[in-house]
Amino acid sequence: MASHGDNNERDGIWIVVPAYNEMEHLPRTLAALTSEYRNIVLIDDGSTDATRELAQSHDVWYLRHAVNRGQGAALQTGIDFALHHRARVIVTFDADGQHNVTDIDALVRPICDGRVDVCLGSRFLGSAPGITWTRWLILKMGVVLTRVLSRIRVTDTHNGLRAFSRHAAQNIGLTHDGMAHASEILDYVARAKLRFHEVPVTIRYTADTLRKGQADWNSVRIFGQLLVAKLIR
Amino acid sequence: MIAFQYAALLIILALLVADLWQLWHKPAMRCFRVCRVAAWSAAGLAIALPEAAQRAARGLGIHRGADLVLYSFVLFSLFTFFLLYSRQTRLQRHITELVRQYAIEHARRVGRRREHAFEDERLA
């Protein structure tokens, strides 16, 4: 049974869940989250399926983008909302069932203890059952590129499971609406010289998530977007 | 002068007159219109006096007038591309900001049970 102190701590933890056409996985994801945490923010990024209807039966804050803007945009919306509600720790969590709710505690603990500003989940420190070799290779290449471009040493550059202290979240200001936001976050952590830590997490891959998830060639496009963004303001 | 020069110069003259009229009567986008007038004028000169383009090219160390025109076109196109991309990016950010503001203003707490009844809570 959670102590009073634990409950107070959990009241300051906000989980931001961006979702786009996730009717298949959303009920299970939200059920798992709402059984452990009180402050869940679901950002419906202009879904055209039954995501909106399915969200109504879970105790969450529901926000909807009138048009689809991308995961980065949805995350920033959720972060802004959580900050407005005085969140002390903000966790980003994917709606597609790839993440484990049980990993959140290890992610927020270093931030709640005041040891770090940002905690990043890493499948390469944890496990990634079902990952294809092409996805593995591209993610590893992403690690190398991130070390060159952003000069930050991480083992997993595109993991949606992360936690931010309030101070870190207040200054992120994501400008990339699409998937390049993940690299933008790491760039910000490096530039702002934030204290960060990586935590082993589990990322579950299924045929469905691999099909719906980021196509491997998208990594090349993201790299191009980041390069152009560095040239053009 | 050949037939192409006459036809092209007529078209350029019409565009130049239209832009000069707009520049005089509509103060908005003045800088853009001035640039366009300059572009039409340069194009007209290059077509009417091809030897002038040749002399200008030689003065810059370029072998042919046609090459000067080509290089100018490429540089101008690149500049326009970066300008348009920058504006497009800024526009997308503005759209996202609008969508975000609307989403936050209309946030709802859903799925809560109070005395066995579902209840929505409007963001104050």
Major sheet of chain A: 7 strands, mixed
Task: Please give the number of β-strands of chain A.
Answer: 7
The string of secondary-structure elements of chain A, in order, is HEHEHEHEHEHEHHEHH
Poorly predicted ranges of chain A:
none
Strand order in the largest sheet of chain B = 1-2
- Report the portion of residues of chain B in β strands: 5-15%
Low-confidence stretches of chain B: 114-124
Report the average pLDDT across residues of chain B: 85
Assess the beta-strand content of chain A as a share of residues: 15-25%
Describe the structure.
The complex is a heterodimer of chains A (233) and B (124). Helices cover 42% and strands 18% of the residues of chain A. Chain A is built from ten helices and seven strands. Chain A has helices at 4-11, 26-34, 51-55, 71-84, 104-112, 133-149, 166-170, 181-191, 207-212, 218-231, and strands spanning 13-19, 39-44, 60-64, 89-92, 118-127, 162-165, 196-202. Chain A has a seven-stranded mixed sheet, with helices on both faces. Chain A is globular and about 45 Å long. Chain B has helices at residues 3-25, 30-48, 50-59, 65-105; strands at 108-114, 117-122. In chain B, α1 (3-25) runs antiparallel to α2, α2 crosses α3 and α3 packs across α4. With 124 residues, chain B is mostly helical. In chain B, β1 (108-114) and β2 form a beta hairpin. Mean pLDDT of chain B is 85; it is low at 114-124. In chain B, 9% of the residues are buried. Chain B contains four helices and two strands. Chain B is elongated. A two-stranded antiparallel sheet of chain B has the order 1-2. The A-B interface holds A 43, 55-67, 69, 73, 76-77, 80-81, 84, 175, 177, 228-229, 232-233 and B 82, 85-86, 89, 92-93, 95-96, 99-100, 102-104, 106-113, 118. β3 (60-64) of chain A pairs antiparallel with β1 (108-114) of chain B, so a sheet runs across the interface.
